[in-house]
Amino acid sequence: MTDPAARADTAALAAALDARDPLAAHTSAFVRGGDVVSYLDGNSLGRPLADLPERFAGFVGEDWGSRLIRSWDEQWMRRPYDLGDRIGALVGAAAGQCFVGDSTTVLLYKLVRAAVDAPWMRADERRREIVIDDDNFPTDRFIVEGIAAERGMTIRWIETDPAGGVTLDQVREAVGERTALVLLSHVAYRSGFLADLAGITAAAHEAGALVLWDLCHSAGVIPTELDACGVDLAVGCTYKYLNGGPGSPAFGYVAERLQGELAQPIQGWMGAADVFGMERSYRAAPDLRRFVSGTPPVLATVALEAMVELIERVGMPAVRAKSVALTDFAEAALQQHVLGERPGADTPAVLASPPAGPHRGSHLTVTHPSFAAVNARLWQRGVIPDFRAPDGIRIGLSPLSTTFAEVELGIAALGHELRQAQRVATRSEARPAG
Ligand SMILES: *Cc1c(COP(=O)(O)O)cnc(C)c1O
Q1: 20 to 30 A from 299, CA-CA: which of 59, 200, 238, 386?
Q2: Are 203 and 169 in contact (CB under 8 A)?
Q3: pLDDT of residue 33
Q4: 287 shares its domain with 358
Q5: Residue 57 lies in a domain
Q6: Vertex 274: Cα angle to 268 and 280 (nearest 5)
Q7: Looking at the domain assignment, is residue 434 inside a domain?
Q8: Is the model's pLDDT at 200 over the cut of 90?
Q9: Whose CA is closest to 83, among 71, 68, 98?
Q10: Structurally, how many domains does the chain consist of?
Q11: What number does the ligand 1 atom closest to the CA of 250 have?
Q12: Is 298 within 8 Å of 91 (Cβ atoms)?
């Protein structure tokens, strides 16, 4: 039970951490309106930056409204690659290897197909397996299921501990001469487990396989070294820690050494060697452009660009440092207010995330059978984590927009609602049957 003194302790600690947070000023660069008192879901939909109205006005009035079609030549044709280079710099990719466009789901389809259809994979009839884990995000698993069926391939499932994630040893055991591709999430969407990207990439390569990393829950929050680790392919979301807004396009990464070798299945005019040649037949562009299919969603990159600018100014190491501090603090507050045995409650809430250290990303999951209902009550109070079936409440810590105080307030509210739910459960069990 949290007594008022314990609440005062965690609240005081939060205030002290906010006071000495070097990034504290940036939290007010975001829209903080409405009834929300604690936003703990920036890992699912980042908050908007407060200067977006002016940016959108400039876009509508100038780029679109005044320059009109000329903007395509002046800047929009380059935009997927310019913005791609800047996101690339955040994930350790040199220029010319990242682009923005399509959704994560569609990019996964294109790049998984590109990998398994690589000429040397098709020439080797043994390489008919895709390795993925059974707790990967649904879209990743569903795309692989579809492609395996389409291509007559098999899926090798790594069984993951839902409170942990895929380990290097598990990958070593799963890969071999049958493996064409390993597809894993850098940070597990449920537990927040941060995978050993360097070690797993090397292990897959030793076995002759290609690797595709899903960076949805790490891009913009975890410094990553795609080039230095020799990664082949990657995709990532921009509406999570890159605050691009609902449905903002994903980014893709294709290592330069593979760009001329791989081909993707959605051949469109924007990926053709001569975009305005209006040729009779498709000839793929020689470089990164061949992974693009159609007109880029320029309007949907306005908010994304603003956030990329902010992260460039702050720097990824500082972002990561605050992510670690927020996550460690969230764990301490959970210990105080939510986790462990409670008097009169039979099922304790459990932390289903890795301990502090090199395998922890920027969110935590706590589980309890009451959490679907508890989460609904929290949302009514303006405390916004998210619920992931069957029983997890996920607490996302988006470093640039989140204060320690709102984390403390949200977790104390979670503790309160959990105890309410446990009290109701105890009362209804005590009621005589009939
Ligand atoms: C959020 C997320 C996605 C989302 O895919 P969309 O096509 O943008 O809906 C995919 N994979 C992972 C691991 C995610 O966390």
Answers
A1: 386
A2: no
A3: 85
A4: no
A5: no
A6: 65
A7: no
A8: yes
A9: 98
A10: 2
A11: 8
A12: no
Structure tokens at 215: 């960076």
> What CA–CA distance (Å, rounded) separates 426 from 259?
61
246: CA distance to ligand 1 center in Å? 12
pLDDT at residue 429, as a whole number: 67
User: Does 325 fall in a domain?
Assistant: yes
Give the pLDDT mean for 88-92: 98
Helix 302-314 vs helix 79-90: angle between axes, to the nearest 10 degrees? 30
Q: What's the one-letter identity of residue 139?
A: T
Q: Are strands 154-158 and 129-133 parallel, antiparallel or unpaired?
A: parallel
On whether both 168 and 303 belong to a single domain, the answer is: yes
Nearest to 49 by CA among 237, 222, 244, 217: 244
Answer yes or no: do 297 and 324 share one domain.
no
Q: List pLDDT tens digits, range 128-145.
A: 999 999 999 999 999 999
- Write down the pLDDT at residue 430: 62
Per DSSP, 143 falls in state H
Q: Looking at the structure, do residues 33 and 81 belong to the same domain, yes or no?
A: no
Q: Which residues line ligand 1 (CB under 6 A)?
A: 103-105, 137, 139-140, 185, 189, 214, 216-217, 237, 250
Contacts of residue 21, Cβ cutoff 8 Å, sequence gap at least 6: 322, 325, 403, 404
Residue 2 binned pLDDT confidence (cut-offs 50, 70, 90) = low
The residue from 310, 333, 361 where one domain ends is 310
Residue 263's domain spans which residues?
75-310
Query: Of the residues 141, 189, 194, 218, which should be mutated to test ligand 1's pocket, given the most ligand atoms within 8 Å of the CB?
Result: 189
Give pLDDT, residue 424: 80
Helix (H, G, I), strand (E, B) or coil at 340: strand
**Are 302 and 327 members of one domain?**
no
User: Which class for 31: exposed (0-12), middle (13-18), buried (19 or more C-beta within 10 A)?
Assistant: middle
Per-residue pLDDT tens for 317-368?
A: 999 999 999 999 999 999 999 998 877 777 899 999 999 999 999 999 999 9
CATH number of the domain encompassing residue 368: 3.90.1150.10
Confidence of residue 1 (pLDDT cuts 50, 70, 90): very low
Which of 310, 329, 348 corresponds to the end of one domain?
A: 310
Q: What is the mean pLDDT of the chain?
A: 96
pLDDT, position 4: 78
Rounded distance from Cα 3 to ligand 1 centre (Å): 40
Q: Which two tokens stand for residue 295?
A: 């007109």
Indicate whether 181 and 208 sit together in one domain: yes
Q: Examine the domain organization and report whether 230 and 320 are in the same domain.
A: no
